[in-house]
Design a protein that fits this description.
The protein has 354 residues and is α/β, with parallel strands linked by helices. The protein binds pyridoxal-5'-phosphate (PLP). Pyridoxal-5'-phosphate (PLP) binds next to helix 4.
Amino acid sequence: MPPTMGIIRACVEKMTGYLPGEMSIDPRTVKLNQNENRHPPSPRVAEAIAGALGGLNLYPESTSRSLRRAAAELYGVSERRVMATNGSDEMLSLFFRCCCSPGDEAVGFHPGYTYYATLAAMNGVRYRPIDFSGEFRLPERLELEPARLVLLANPNSPTGTLFPEGEIRRLLAAAGNGLVVIDEAYADFSGQTSIPLLDEYPNLAVVRTLSKSHSLAGLRVGLGFARPEPLAQFEKVRDFYNLDRLAQAGAEAALRDRDWLRRTVERIVASRERTARGIAGLGLKVYPSAANFLFFRCPGDSGAERISASLRERNILVRHFGNRGISDCLRVSIGTEADMDLFLAGLEKAVRKG
Ligand SMILES: *Cc1c(COP(=O)(O)O)cnc(C)c1O
């Protein structure tokens, strides 16, 4: 008898919960382990949230109409192709719940976003991660069937790799009846999006988040893009009041302040390139990144553990995954210019010590 006396579904009992990066409540911590944005959000977000406070006695508008309209304008699609969710993680969960029955298969790639495997486990879905080939590219031969879902982050996390449009098309062509989910959590840093491909491919869905480029991880807002027919099904299954009034108002203000987004992204991209040169200058292998983080290899046995521990002593958090094939790698989020100076100084000390 399992410890919960059979009250809990076996697939839930067996799964290990998702392990996010370490949190910190110390404001002095240079937190570069969860790809949050260390620049503040647009000041219009706080204004909009303050303006929405008066309505908290009433339920929010259930379809996030005004926010969806702003997203539709921004991305040049019909409103019928957009939905808003409580973080992009809710959107990802809806794909599993709407597209997969227990025992079905979902395909992802390794190394990739590990939350996909957690979602599969909680839904009784078999998760098959396909190894990238070479320097984190899609393999020549894509064997995706009979997957009901194929998930790829573009740019990918934790590697930062950007897959060009031709590669996304190859994935869409190979997926058969499965839904291809392109997770664009970091797309604003890459200047590339698969949203226009919805015109050609009915088996495509694209996910966006305001957690990274818009500096709103704490507000929990994601966007899902798909053709109206599947989107209507996802709408039926989501939490009815999934976005509260403050989240809807704040997210809309953030989307409408395009200049703020452009300036923040420019700063982060410039900082990323400077940081990449700094890491490479210490003799470490750093992979090309189109996102707001860098992925690099550390020398020597347990070099990654040692360097991340040494950075932690200086109150700098980076992410070590320890997974197959990448246990000697670290991922560092791109913070402010000052954050990256501290990081590079700490990294240099750690590398010299080894
Ligand atoms: C951060 C991240 C998300 C989660 O975004 P939320 O909107 O905060 O839930 C989704 N996918 C990838 C690949 C991410 O890195």
